[in-house]
Amino acid sequence: MTPACQAALLFAAAALAAAPRAEACTPSTDPGACDDGTGRTACTQAPPGATGRFHLTVLGTGFAPIGACVYVSEPTVGYTGDVVMHKGSTGQASWNTFNASHRGNGLRVSNLVWDSAWEDSGLGTGQRSPKTAALRVKAALAWIHQNVHVVGAAAAFCGAGTSGGSGALLYSIMHHGAGELFDHVQLQAATPMGRIDVGCTPRQAPVPTDCPGVSLSPSYSERSASNFRKWTNVRSCLKANRTQTDMNGWREASVASAGARRAFDKTSISAFWCQTSPNETLPQGALVFGAANDQISFSTRAPAFQPDGTQRCAANAACRPYLDCATQCAGEAATMDPAAFNRMVADMKLNCRPRH
What we know:
The chain is of the alpha/beta class. It has a single domain (16-351), classed as Alpha/Beta hydrolase fold, catalytic domain (Rossmann fold, 3-Layer(aba) Sandwich), CATH 3.40.50. Helix content is 28%, strand content 21%. It has eleven helices and 15 strands. It has helices at residues 3-18, 39-42, 99-104, 130-133, 135-147, 164-174, 196-199, 222-232, 244-252, 281-289, 338-351, and strands at 32-35, 52-60, 63-73, 81-86, 107-114, 156-162, 184-188, 207-208, 215-216, 263-264, 268-274, 297-298, 304-305, 311-313, 322-326. Strands 1-2-3-5-4-6-7-11-15 form a nine-stranded mixed sheet, sandwiched between helices. A hairpin with a 2-residue loop joins strand 2 (52-60) and strand 3. The longest helix is centred in the first third of the chain and has 16 residues, at 3-18.
């Protein structure tokens, strides 16, 4: 082979390696997800004990294509159900905090990790919506429900999300129908997406929160605002030049927006916050749950329980979400409080039960 041919082959190989990977599958729904078969090479954040790695291609008309990894860890005692874990921020890391505890309580754990920020729909030059982008989350959850949970389809299917991950789950159940999948949803630091328009307005007065005696401004920090500028493609968040059009778009993109489902018949809900030096997720959460916990309710065929094991609500009785405020912690991380961590473990163990 001549040097020129060798050079040409090397160039072609390099170009092929640099080219975007062709999609190896096509979902059967819009939006939808499918296993593209690259999990073993594309998914490198497997938590200890994970026995399954799947890489999903997620497609839909409301967002640019995105990939996601699903790491599946089987329970270490008899199987009782499935729980999907979604980390905060952009969801690009695996939330493993509860894996060992949940597996020890009989739950199969699926850690959902995105290739890029799930909140940025990536389409068009105008205003974007994390609420629309959350259709990606619903599509991935539906894939897990159908392809992982199917082995124990008569058992419970549950979810847990922290901070931005709590927003992913709230969008999914309140706007995209994931209540038809989930039996129980547990949230931590819920949620930065309560009212994006309020968060993007600087120096908002403190509002009562769901933690006793704690009032706090729902305006975003500059760090949070910079994220929403990217995710909504509107640069005026916290800026003096924001317009009514900007505000209207942010309101529509919020969890607490028109059309949000607030009463559930198949899904129980719990939420946990850290009330020590909290950030805006606490007052933003109050804009979703109500400072008196009066904005969301559920009534399901299975009873709901307090973390101490006492019954909170009887089967088929109206119930409000269980709300919990930790004190031995800082910022968003209620899990820093050992007692709150144990309450979260118990809440999932007791309430991740069939409700459909």
